[in-house]
Amino acid sequence: MTKFARDEFDRVPQNSSRQGVHRVVTPPSRPALWPVLVLGALALVVGLTAFLVLPKSAPSASQGPSATQAPSAQQSPSGSASASQSPSASPTPGAGQTPSTTPSPTPGADTVDKTTPVAVYNGAGVSGLAARVSTTVQNDGWTLSDVGNWSGVPQQGSAIFYNGPEQKGNAEALGKLLGISELLDTAQYQVPVVVVLGPGYN
Predict the structure, then answer these.
(1) pLDDT by residue (tens digit) across 143-175?
(2) Strand runs (DSSP E) across the chain, as ranges?
């Protein structure tokens, strides 16, 4: 027992989590982060410098071989062009050569094909005229198609109708054989060559 009177400091609370009035709860200490941040920034700066500076300085060393190889690459097409131009001079005729000017014969213009079917029609009104002329045509080696009376537009004279330029030679040959000078090109008839005997033909 003390000889001093009890005061407010002698009253002790009943809970176990009591603390002294002079004690202060301090939070746990945290490690300092600024050294880590400084090192990271330095590493980033070094990396960017190496990425931006080193690639620009590298091509300067590799430009030497490419510059020396460029003329050889440009000269190769000229050599191939000269090689390709040399054969083009050979087909040209020389000084002593004269190009042939004979035209190639056009098929059917002057050729005669007696296997071409020929029709003979009587437009003169003379009995048996078509049969007599068709015999003359057949005896000359021609192939007959139709023989009969003319049922078309009345003709003022005899004529030979041929279908296309390729039948012109056949029409001319028949004209000389039969004494008919009027030759007409027309696609009106299915037979390639049609002989129409008009009035006055004998």
Answers:
(1) 999 999 998 888 889 999 999 999 999 999 999
(2) 117-122, 143-149, 159-162, 183-185, 193-197
